Amino acid sequence: MARPRKSRRSRKVVKLEQATGTRKALLYTRVSSPEQEREGFSLDAQENLLRDYAVRNGYHIVSRHIDVETAKSTGRTEFAAMLKYFKDHRSVRILLVEKVDRLYRNMTDYLEIDNLDIEIHLVKGGVIISKESKYSEKFIHGIKILMVKNYVDNLSEETKKGLLEKASQGIWPTHAPTGYINVLGSAGKRIIIPDPEAAPLVIKLFEWMETGEY
């Protein structure tokens, strides 16, 4: 993997900070769902990649932030904590992340990061984005952000289309609500029926609620 390119001024700053031991970095990793986290590969692979990169380049990781949330919308817990850390620690100006879609898939989060005046090291692609980056590098970075946002928007649209089509055919389109279970009906379509174990409990809960005592 090619080493990221730096401007002349950036190279001088790097040499000075390395000599004084001040090149501090923040590490950010993300997966979209608990299922991906339970698989146990993606988060570990991301962190190992970023830590190896930090060692090779003489960066000291002072904070790590891990999200198990989708990046299609704002409000990720550790993403917000990461922003706060950068704002509270002005000596830390380096963010290590695997690639663009691990960091953001919406424009609001991109603007939040862009306003921090930090170096974003997209380690897998060997790219550094900062205020000093060339126009062409920022342009390509912007295109990548739009591409991942378009992917999310298209995936959401296609998912909704598929669920509506299933519902129109009388197929239960998703997981059964509490008190029911998913089964295959006589026509080979997925339907829901009362769960023989949970349904009586749900009925009892509603009966208790109606008494006004609970």
Task: Set down the secondary structure blueprint.
Blueprint: H1 8-20, E1 24-31, H2 34-39, H3 42-57, E2 60-68, H4 77-88, E3 94-97, H5 100-103, H6 107-114, E4 119-122, E5 127-129, H7 135-168, E6 180-184, E7 190-194, H8 198-210
Parallel strand pairs: 1-2, 1-3, 3-4
Antiparallel strand pairs: 4-5, 6-7
Description of the structure:
With 214 residues, this protein is α/β, with parallel strands linked by helices. 50% of the residues lie in helices and 18% in strands. It is built from eight helices and seven strands; from the N terminus they run H-E-H-H-E-H-E-H-H-E-E-H-E-E-H. The protein has helices at residues 8-20, 34-39, 42-57, 77-88, 100-103, 107-114, 135-168, 198-210; strands at residues 24-31, 60-68, 94-97, 119-122, 127-129, 180-184, 190-194. The strands form two sheets. The protein has a five-stranded mixed β-sheet, sandwiched between helices. The longest helix is centred in the C-terminal third of the chain and has 34 residues, at 135-168. The protein is elongated, with a radius of gyration of 24 Å. It starts with 7 loop residues before the first helix and ends with a helix. Residues 1-10 and 16-20 have low confidence and may be disordered.
